Amino acid sequence: MGALSVSGKSQPSALTGAIRRVLVVDDSRAQRMLLSRSLTRQGYQVCEAGSGEAALAACQAEEYDLVLSDWMMPGMDGIEFCRAFRNLPRENYGYFILLTSKTEKGSVARGLDVGADDFLTKPVKSDELLARINAGDRILRMERELTEKNRLVSATLAEIQTLYDSLDRDLIDARKMQQSLVREPFRDFGSAEVSLLLKPCGHVGGDLVGFFQVGADQIGLYSIDVSGHGVASAMLTARLASYLSDGAPEQNIALVRDHRGKYVSRPPCEVADLLNILMIEDMETEPYFTILIGYLDLKTGKVDFCQCGHPNPLIVNSDDDVRYFGSGGMPIGLIEDAEYDQQSVQLKPGDRLLFYSDGFTECENDQGQQLDEAGFEKLICENAELDGGDFFTALVWDLDLYSGSLDFGDDLSCAMVRYKGPDRAK
């Protein structure tokens, strides 16, 4: 009764389907032989078990694509075996057909509850058996195709995750490198102090701020905003940083040697022209950028600057009043023959000059309202008693409160000069 036997040889016809290995379970040896012979002739590899216990042991040892099990058997009956079969760990789904007598038809619901897929009434007719097997074969084909597709999707997602993790690590390193472009967030020149803020909204960003010294009496100051926020934008900011280097005057396009061989500042409008030529003729890149570049005379407080599509600069005076100025201008890298104008503004002792990106004024709250210049002015006035890094920290904090639950949608950057007056020169 409990013995397991194998009969028949695999035929090519069975190998083309999803169902190849069949387990026939019946306590009647005659019933097992009839079913086994019929299935063997169709090319299936057939194994037999004379009890539910023997069948369960066989299924624990290896997988069968199809199980044909009698319902009424001594010991473990077909229902109990089916329930145990469904609890077995398997790589693929196994199709389970219960063999019933006429008197058991009313209990079909029980069989479905424990996991049976189909039913056959005894005595089993050969054509009906093959029809049910073909139906099961179609189901198993779909199941295994789906399993394979899921496996491929999982493998692809795992590869993507590996690439993403690698890219994420690279972007973290790139962020550190981009932050290193701002080597000095603060410097005291005696008659003026310069403070810098650079806060990308993602791993890397397209903003850049910086300063450089021109002789003993002049400093250059710039704020750049490259279109986009990704790797291409970050790479362009790195290249622009090399063009406006503080440590290598021979590479700084804002500096030129005079007749005595000393480096002096090139007019800011000429710097804009040179950058525009580089963008259009040499770089041939899609991104463009806006820039504010100017020079502060440390003795007089005069600032000559060029505004190229960048937000209007502002001055905060000693009474904490805010004044915007500027005339817009054309961004760099859009039009080949763009013209750039030079402007001037006078700083008084105690004044602070801010070159900032539109990440501040275009910051949105939960209702989609932008902070704009009026809102930015309010934040500045609320924190005007602070200076340097403390001022920037408070400004970003208040901007975060304004945005509410939203993350910053753009990079934040600002270059700030506090002019102390010529009598404070080193």
Question: Top keywords for this entry?
Answer:
Phosphatase 2c, domain 1; 6-stranded antiparallel β-sheet; 426 residues; rod-shaped; alpha+beta; 19 strands; 6-stranded mixed β-sheet; single chain; Rossmann fold
Task: Describe the overall structure.
There is one protein chain. The chain has eleven helices and 19 strands. It is an alpha+beta fold and 426 residues long. The chain folds into two domains: 4-149, 3-Layer(aba) Sandwich (Rossmann fold); 180-424, Phosphatase 2c, domain 1, CATH 3.60.40.10. A hairpin with a 4-residue loop joins strand 13 and strand 14 (302-308). Helix 3 runs parallel beside helix 4.
Topology diagram in text:
Elements: E1 4-7, H1 12-15, E2 21-25, H2 29-41, E3 45-49, H3 52-61, E4 66-70, H4 78-86, E5 95-100, H5 108-114, E6 118-121, H6 126-179, E7 186-188, E8 192-199, E9 207-214, E10 218-226, H7 231-243, E11 255-257, E12 263-265, H8 268-283, E13 289-297, E14 302-308, E15 314-316, E16 322-324, E17 343-346, E18 352-356, H9 358-361, H10 372-382, H11 388-403, E19 412-419
Parallel strand pairs: 2-3, 2-4, 4-5, 5-6
Antiparallel strand pairs: 1-3, 7-8, 8-19, 9-10, 10-13, 11-12, 13-14, 14-17, 15-16, 15-18, 18-19
Helix pairs in contact: 3-4
Class by helix and strand content?
alpha+beta
SSE sequence, one letter per element: EHEHEHEHEHEHEEEEHEEHEEEEEEHHHE
Could you report the average pLDDT, rounded to the nearest whole number? 88
Termini separation: 106 Å
Number of strands: 19
Main pleated-sheet profile: 6 strands, mixed
The amount of beta strand, in percent, is: 15-25%
